[in-house]
Amino acid sequence: MALIQAIRRVLLHPHLSKKTASMTTQPLPDETPFTAVEPVAAALHASDASTLDAPAQADQSAEAIDPRDAREPRRQRTQGNRDRQQQQPARAKTPPRPVNPALERLFELYPKLFGAHFVPLKLGVFQELLARHPDDFKKDDLKLAMGQHARSTRYLESVAAGQARHDLDGNVVEAVAPEHVHHALLEIFRRRQARTPEDLRPRLRVRLMEAIETSGLSREAYADLMRVQDEATNALLDEAVAELGLEAAKREALVRTFEASGKTVAEFSDMYGLNAAEVTSVVERVGREKAAAAALASHDIPA
Fold first, then answer.
1. Within a domain: 232
2. Is 261 domain-assigned?
3. What is the pLDDT of residues 239-292, one digit of tens each?
4. Strand, helix or coil at 78?
5. pTM for the complete prediction?
6. How many structural domains comprise the chain?
7. What one-character-per-residue DSSP string does 245-303 give?
8. What's the CA dihedral at 183, 185, 191, 195 to 10 degrees?
């Protein structure tokens, strides 16, 4: 019975069938609609108050009503609420964030790169912009604008989602380095954890697991590359690595059980009440992982 439950947990784990779903198809929501060009830069680069995976936020604007009000006529309750609201001091309005003219110009020139959806930009794009538009930008102004753009939560989200880097013509030129994905995830977590009492570490751990699996590195190599001086961050990384190791062990146990059974995938699946397509996926995945490990080992062994 324990074996059957373990097998089912392996097959039901989200990393097996769609291990990069939340990174590529469900990035952390952070998109604010806009309709005019004038506030584009300010709106797109404003601070983000949402949390990891954007859970629904409770509406704190409604005023609590005294239970005694339930016995009052509707008109009296409404008037009482209005009186209480009028007695409250008016809240100071936050002045609109100044628009960076250089960011506005970038939006006009490259709406697909600096518009409603951000994408990671190729390394060296700053110099290319200066060379291509010498009359549009001063070096210091463009440097400030590009820094603001690259530090925005929207841009970091595109990096954390593992999107490819693009050139100024919108062409894909290279993948984002694993360390850039990793540090973008940590920075997004840091910003959003500071704005909510909810513990976002479990969600970050899942995102780290996805980043590890898509990095092309072994779990050990990834952990060595990303380790920093902050022990809390390292602890989260270690948890993600350990959980991935546990999943891998369960997959291997399933495959060993399948191979020892001497049955077809259909027969094995029927025996344990599993989905045949998912069993096939696990078997094929373990085969790829073993082949990759063998290839890596062969490169490490001197001829």
1. yes
2. yes
3. 999 999 999 999 999 999 989 989 999 989 998 899 999 999 999 988 888 887
4. helix
5. 0.69
6. 1
7. HHHHHHHHHHHHHHHHHT--HHHHHHHHT--HHHHHHHHHHHHHHHHHHHHHHHHHS--
8. -160
